[in-house]
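Batch job 17 of 40 flagged for manual review because the log was empty.
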Amino acid sequence: MLRKIFRNVKTEYDQFGATKTSDLKKLNLCSGNNTLKGYVNTDMFKGPGIDKVFDIRKPPFPFKENEFDEIYCRHILNHISEDHRMEVFDELYRIGKPGCVIKILVPFAWSNGSFGHIQHQSFFVKGSFNYYKTSKFFDIKETKAEFKLLKEELITYGGFRRFLPLKDFLSKFLINIYDDIYYELRIVKN
């Protein structure tokens, strides 16, 4: 199954993100050339299939509050600097309906895909979204956004690495055991 994902980007969307339900309003954030049918496709630059052009580092996004049921972010959040990260998540929270699912696919921090691109500024591991969990031990003052982590999955696309035993253990000591990490977050609004 993962071999198909590696060979075909559209199959990757089907596996990690593309919800088939047509009555939902869905956003494909910074889609570039990977536009999706049934989604509002956005990017910083005009191109075929791009519905809205804007820079996500300069909020507010050109959408109404509570507009989307699903937001898909494929290999974009790793390009957001620390200076803009909280603003971007606040905007995702603002434009998502209560219960909106945000689907995020980014390079795993300990992979060449993460550090192999000069524009990558954020790095993701298991637990990266623990920041948004409610805790009795600390209060997050920087944001009002609240998300529930639904899924956190490490992905290996090809080669012998798929068959390695103890991958989770080995990934703490070796790079390139995993390629990407996939998250699903549910927006929590009262």
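Reviewer: the log was empty due to a logging misconfiguration, but the result itself is present. Residues 146 and 188 are 5 Å apart (CA to CA). Unflagging and moving on to job 18.
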